[in-house]
Amino acid sequence: VEIVSYDGPRALRLRETELPQGVPAEIAAFGEPVRIAVRAAGVSFPELLQSRGQYQMKPELPFVPGAEVAGTVEQAPCGSSFAPGDRVFAFCLLGGFADTALAPEQLVFRLPESLDFAEGASLFSNYHTAYFSLVTRGRAERGETVLVHGAAGGVGTASLQVARALGLKTIAAAAGAMLVLRSDGPWKDEALAAGGADMVLDPVGDRTLDSLRALREGGRLVIVGFTSGEIPEIAVHRPLHRNVDVIGAGYGAYVFSRPELGAAISSELGAMIDQGLVRPIVGARYSLSEAGAALAHLDSRRALGKVVLEVDG
Ligand SMILES: NC(=O)c1ccc[n+]([C@@H]2O[C@H](COP(=O)([O-])OP(=O)(O)OC[C@H]3O[C@@H](n4cnc5c(N)ncnc54)[C@H](OP(=O)(O)O)[C@@H]3O)[C@@H](O)[C@H]2O)c1
Question: Cα(108) to centroid of ligand 1, in Å?
Answer without folding.
Answer: 24
